Amino acid sequence: MRSSPQPLSGEQPYSAASWLAGWAVFLSSGFVASVLLNSAWVDCDIGVNASANLGSLVVASTVMATVSTSVWALLRWATGRRRLLTPFLLTTATGILLLWPFMAFWHAPDGYPVSTCPPDNVPPWWPTWLPL
User: What 8-state DSSP symbol labels residue 84?
Assistant: First the structure.
């Protein structure tokens, strides 16, 4: 005898789309942060070489990715598990806003000599209206 099929409940905690969006948030925020920080370091001649900067770059981008993913999880919980677009857009906006303190903290070590990017090792492409 076959048992009757169980109805699908709408209370499933996670969906495949949720996991996929979470990974997209994690990878994209870490990638954007590392590209932005690496560009600042290359333009301002910070560090010894690319391989020496890799450790710091991995730590910095992992911190950014972890914070963005935590924001994603918090917004998914706050807006309801069935919604994906609202928390994704809010997480994207939060990630963009978090790039400023991220760059302010990581763009140049304290006491690093100002050589090619005066004042204060701010890269030339950084907006002048946004202080670092």
Answer: -
Are 83 and 112 in contact by the 8 Å Cβ rule? The answer is no
Query: Of 101, 115, 109, which is closest to residue 53 (Cα–Cα)?
Result: 109
Cα–Cα distances in Å, from 111 out to 46, 70, 114, 121? Answer: 12, 32, 9, 10
Percentages of the chain per state (helix, strand, coil), in multiples of 5: 60, 0, 40
pTM of the model: 0.73
Dihedral sign for Cα 62, 109, 96, 81, please. positive
pLDDT digits (tens, 9 = 90+) for 14-52: 567 777 877 888 888 888 888 888 888 888 877 767 677
Rg (CA), the chain: 20
Distance from C-alpha of 82 to C-alpha of 86, rounded to nearest angstrom: 10
Low-confidence stretches of the chain (pLDDT beneath 50) = 7
